[in-house]
Design goal:
Blueprint lengths: L22 E5 L3 E7 L7 E2 L2 E2 L1 H22 L8 E10 L8 E12 L2 E10 L2 E11 L3
Length: 139
């Protein structure tokens, strides 16, 4: 379980300016939680709001941070994952610049080389985005 990992770059293959998570708040085998502050210079901000693509990438990077942390616990390097599909994607609001997002993913299914996760993004104590995502874990 992670309480707080101060350097998110040790867990993710992504690099600035394409980081969509700031901190890993919690991780176990099936759950990860992150926080993220939306900044104006983020490439997925448009007209002062974090876009749908940004919300999806935030969910995917939350999964990657959890996987990276679990790999680290096993003494392994974090490996990249690739989004295969997204389903049941809903967005009720686009958060403005300077918003603090809290994101949680839960692993629903593991099959060789693919995990299926559900993810939610919360802003101001309200779920503003949710989806299921299939992620290819090895090529």
């Amino acid at each position: 379980m992670a309480d707080y990992i101060p350097e998110i770059l040790t867990l993710l293959p992504q690099r600035p300016p394409f980081l969509m998570v700031d901190r890993l708040l919690y991780s176990d085998a099936d759950t990860a939680r992150t926080s993220f502050r939306v900044k104006a210079e983020n490439p997925l901000v448009d007209k002062g709001v974090f876009t749908e693509a940004g919300l999806l990438e935030n969910i995917a990077q939350t999964a990657a941070a959890g996987a990276g942390y679990n790999a680290r616990l096993e003494g392994k390097a974090a490996s990249p994952g690739y989004i295969v599909s997204v389903s049941r994607f809903t967005v009720s609001a686009l958060p403005p610049v300077d918003s603090e997002l809290l994101t949680e993913i839960r692993v629903q299914t593991r099959i060789p080389d693919i995990i299926v996760i559900s993810g939610t993004v919360t802003y101001n104590d309200k779920v503003i985005a949710a989806c299921e995502m299939k992620i290819l874990t090895s090529v």
